[in-house]
Q: What sequence folds into this?
């Protein structure tokens, strides 16, 4: 089973845990409705959309209400440490969470103590904590954008805010930054780097780049990276190898963007609505990527 | 606005003017909101302080510290106490501190301009100066800040440094500042 872990910007939300379901107003988790505009709800909605195509059961979700003070994230962390030893998840995806190395390490220790360690995907704030902890290599997949890749490549930066200037966040430097992130052991086993061209890299080697369809307007739209992480989570959960999942998800997210025909002022909801159609199209023509193993 | 970051960046790795390396200390707080309030209070009192990244040994996650002349610790503590602020720790500086990012990237989408600072991207419509999207970032205040900023003009938008709480919020503040600067130049 797949577990999606993140936050929503509602300080009164507390902790919500349960199965995710689509809802006319967005998504539901454990019976609680959440709008889908960006962030973890966008990841969940995209994962649900992809899961329908893949025939997967709905994911389990843990959400905390957090607007940046960290209280909701700590509720989530505590819940995970208490419940993971009794759970049997095959894939965990960590998302918008307050970076906290102490809690990160407690959760990793809990996961390492399980009879069968789940596959681990990290994006957003939890990816920052994973890198800062020095335990990045224990993860199966990180999904950074270009700015976050520069942060992973800077062995001294504890947060993208402190990325040193000489490590320029330029898309043409992505291969160099990927190599540097792996060299300093600050990358997960695989990286899916989101950008004008998406890069899939595993264990130091770039396996694939995805540049088409190119929908320039996707970059400024909040939530398009979240939707990509949602799709790739669904694919890994459905049994696809991580590297192949990255290539398929990158294509499907782009195709959904093309179908949605957005402008820079669009919301991610329109893209998510087109994910099932886009993913079907990509899977129908996915023979060339099935051979890509991790 | 947000001048403390620009001033810090323009001085590179230098210490505040009144102190040498051996005389600097850092104030550690519970969260970045307290850091900003304390920085404002100390700057208002005329002290040469600046916000920096914490040294590795006290880093916990999404955090900042205030660098200040250690010789003034007593007066600084008193000022902060009067403002209802209690630092978690006061630590002498023993090595170089990290500097906030000061590089921007700009992408032109025709009617729209996107400004990226570190991992945060802010996009506005050129004609109306209305913010149409916020993307990037990974800390939990990003979706909250996006909700508060999108739909407002660059002038109407609330300051992320006042309503946000994390380093991603700071980066978004920088992107907003740069957007305003580009519109006024």
A:
């Amino acid at each position: 089973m797949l577990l999606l872990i993140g936050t929503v910007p509602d300080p009164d939300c507390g902790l919500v845990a349960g199965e995710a379901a689509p809802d006319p107003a967005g998504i539901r988790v454990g019976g609680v409705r959440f709008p889908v505009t960006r962030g973890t709800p966008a990841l969940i909605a995209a994962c649900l959309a992809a899961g329908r195509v893949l025939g997967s059961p709905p994911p389990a979700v843990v959400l905390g209400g957090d607007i940046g003070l960290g209280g909701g994230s700590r509720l989530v962390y505590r819940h995970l440490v208490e419940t993971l030893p009794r759970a049997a998840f095959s894939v965990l995806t960590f998302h918008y969470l307050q970076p906290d190395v102490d809690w990160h390490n407690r959760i990793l220790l809990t996961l390492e103590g399980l009879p069968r360690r789940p596959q681990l995907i990290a994006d957003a704030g939890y990816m920052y904590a994973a890198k800062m902890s020095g335990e990045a290599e224990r993860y199966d997949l990180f999904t950074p954008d270009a700015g976050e890749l520069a942060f992973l490549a800077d062995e001294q930066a504890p947060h993208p805010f402190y990325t040193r200037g000489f490590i320029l966040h330029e898309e043409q430097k992505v291969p160099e930054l990927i190599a540097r992130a792996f060299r300093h052991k600050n990358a997960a086993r695989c990286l899916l780097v989101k950008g004008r061209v998406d890069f899939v890299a595993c264990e130091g080697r770039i396996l694939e780049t995805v540049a088409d369809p190119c929908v320039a307007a996707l970059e400024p739209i909040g939530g398009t990276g979240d939707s990509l992480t949602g799709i790739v989570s669904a694919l890994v959960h459905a049994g696809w190898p991580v590297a192949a999942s990255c290539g398929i998800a990158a294509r499907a997210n782009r195709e959904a963007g093309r179908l949605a025909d957005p402008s820079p002022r669009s919301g991610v909801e329109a893209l998510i609505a087109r994910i099932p159609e886009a993913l079907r199209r990509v899977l129908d023509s996915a023979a060339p990527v099935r051979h890509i193993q991790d | 606005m947000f001048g403390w970051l620009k001033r810090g960046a323009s001085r590179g790795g230098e210490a505040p003017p009144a102190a040498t390396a051996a005389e600097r200390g850092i104030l550690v707080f519970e969260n970045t909101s307290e850091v900003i309030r304390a920085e404002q209070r100390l700057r208002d009192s005329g002290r040469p302080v600046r916000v920096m990244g914490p040294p590795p040994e006290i880093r916990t996650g999404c955090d900042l510290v205030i660098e200040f002349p250690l010789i003034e610790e007593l007066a600084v503590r008193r000022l902060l106490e009067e403002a209802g602020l209690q630092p978690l720790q006061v630590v002498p500086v023993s090595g170089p501190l990290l500097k906030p990012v000061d590089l921007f990237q700009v992408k032109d989408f025709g009617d729209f301009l996107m400004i990226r600072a570190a991992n945060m991207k802010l996009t506005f419509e050129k004609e109306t100066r209305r913010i149409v999207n916020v993307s990037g970032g990974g800390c939990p205040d990003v979706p909250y800040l996006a909700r508060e900023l999108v739909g407002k003009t660059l002038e109407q938008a609330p300051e992320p440094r006042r309503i946000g709480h994390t380093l991603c919020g700071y980066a978004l503040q920088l992107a907003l500042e740069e957007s305003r600067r580009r519109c006024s130049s």
Observations:
- DSSP finds eleven helices and eleven strands in chain A.
- The first helix of chain A runs from residue 39 to 54.
- Chain A touches chain B through 59 residues (CB under 8 Å).
